[in-house]
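Board notes (copied after class):
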Amino acid sequence: MVNGMATVKVTITLQDERLQEIRALVASGQTASISGFVQHAVVTALHDAAGWRELLSEALDKTGGPLTNKERSWADSVLSGKAPKRSSRKRTAA
């Protein structure tokens, strides 16, 4: 963390268990403060997200470019836990 960087106070909501875990880390000296812990977690998450974006971009470049709207809808449904809609058409053997 670079000292002297501008910061903004925000309110976040955490599960009580998570907050207690962070407080335990502060109490044991493993992290300086709750705020410091959250700042580190945010930096880590942003770095991870950037890495995943780069990995996805490289994979798409190797497999035909950006997703089509149909592919994006399918991926969104899979990632959200909703089953993709299946065609109601009956398939016939060739």
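Comment from the instructor: DSSP finds three helices and no strands in the chain. The mean pLDDT is 88.
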